[in-house]
Amino acid sequence: MNLEQEFTDQLIRLAECRIDVATWQNWWTLHAEEVKKRIGCGDYTFLNCVPSAFGSDTYMAKCQKGAERYLTKNAIPFQHATLYEEGADNERKLYVEKMEQQRKMQQEERQREYEQKKRRRRVLYDYQIPDENKIKTGLRTLPANADEIDLIKLLIEWTEYLAQEKYKEALEMFLLDENNELDWTPELLESAVYTYGCPGYTREEAEKEFGSADYKVTSVLRNPDREEIITGIDISSDFGWMGKDDIAVIHYENVPLNGKMSDLTARFFVRRISDAALTLAFIDLHVM
After folding, report:
1. 3-state per-residue secondary structure call for the chain
2. Coil, strand or helix at 248
3. What gap in Å lies between CA 288 and CA 278, rounded to an integer?
4. What are the strands, taking DSSP E only, across the chain?
5. Distance (Å, rounded) from C-alpha 140 to C-alpha 8?
6. What is the value of pTM for the model shown?
7. C-alpha 113, offset from chain centre
8. Rounded CA gap, 199 and 24, in Å?
9. Which of 29, 34, 109, 114 has the greatest number of CB atoms lying within 10 Å of its CB?
10. b/e string for 143-166 if b means 16 or more Cβ within 10 A?
11. Contact 258, 218 (CB under 8 A)
12. DSSP class of 131
C-alpha cells in the first residue's frame, strides 16, 4: 500500500473513531514529515495536534476534525462517529471538577495558613510601643535570630512615625536599598503618601492630576482593621531578586490611610548587617 492510500485509510479511521490514540500517534510520528510534503500547510496544521491537558479523547477529537476537514475537501466518503467527542466532553467535565477541587484545596490551605499567622501574631493586636522606642532615632537593628514578631513591631513603629508625619525619622529607621529606582528622601516619602503611591508630585500637582492630595498614614494600632493589616504582612524568603545579605522580603500591604486599610504597599528587605544583627532595607512605597 502506498503512503497516499495508507494516509487516506488512517484519516477515515480517525473520522469514524476506529483508531486508538497510541496507534494514531505512532503512525503520525513515523509519517508526519512525509505527509507534510504532500498536503497543504493548512491541512497539515489541523492534523498536527498537540496532546491535550484534558485527556486523550480531547486530543483525538481535534485530530478527527482535521481528518474530516481533509476528507471533505477531497470528496472522500466517511461516516462521522461521536466516540471521541463524547469522551472529550467527559474529560473536560472531569478536568473542571479536578480544577475546582484543587482550587478549593488551595483556598482551604491559604485559609489555614492565614489562621496560623493570625494565632502567631495575636500578641501584636494590642501591642504598645515602649516609651524608649518612641524617642529612638537612627538605624534600628535586631538580633540575628529575630522572628517575625520582632520584624512586625518595627513596621508598626515605622507606621506610627508616618502617622505623626515624621518622615525623616521613618526613613532613618532603616537602610535604603542601593538598587532603588528612586533616591528616597523625607519629601519623596511624604509625596508617596499624599498622592496614594505616586511619589514626586507636589501637593498642588497631585491635586490637579488626581483630584486629591490629602492622604495621610494613620495609626495601625488604632485602626479597626488592625488584625487584618498585621496578619496580612507577608514575609517571604523565596524571591530571586534578593541581595546576597538579604534573608527575606516583606510586603506590608494595606498600609492604613485616613483611618482605613488602603492599597498602599511598603516593601523591605530583611538584611543581615553582621553575624549578630539584622535590619530592614526600605525598597519603596507604592500601590500594587
Report:
1. CCHHHHHHHHHHHHHCCCCCHHHHHHHHHHHHHHHHHHCCHHHHHHHCCCCCCCCHHHHHHHHHHHHHHHHHHCCCCCCCCCHHHHHHHHHHHHHHHHHHHHHHHHHHHHHHHHHHHHHHHHHHCCCCCCHHHHCCCCCCCEECCCCHHHHHHHHHHHHHHHHCCCHHHHHHCCEECCCCCCCCCHHHHHHHHHCCCCCCCCHHHHHHHHCCCCCCECCCCCCCCHHHHHHHCEEECCCCCCCCCEEEEEEECCCCECCECCCEEEEEEEEECCCCEEEEEEEEEEEC
2. strand
3. 26
4. 142-143, 175-176, 234-236, 246-252, 264-272, 277-287
5. 78
6. 0.72
7. 17
8. 61
9. 114
10. eeebebeebbbbbbbbbbbbbeeb
11. yes
12. H
Cell of residue 99, nine digits:
480544577
Domain positions in the chain are 3-89, 127-287
Question: Could you read off the pLDDT of 103-147 as tens digits, one per residue?
Answer: 999 999 999 999 999 999 999 999 999 888 888 889 999 999 999
Q: What angle do CA 126, 131, 136 make, to 5 degrees?
A: 115
> For 185-223, how does the pLDDT look when each residue is reduced to its tens digit (9 = 90+)?
999 999 999 999 999 999 999 999 988 889 999 999 999
Cell numbers found for residue 41? 500547510
Amino acid at 242: M
How many Å apart are CA 235 and CA 270, to the nearest integer? 9
Q: For residues 191 and 209, is the Cβ–Cβ distance under 8 A? A: no
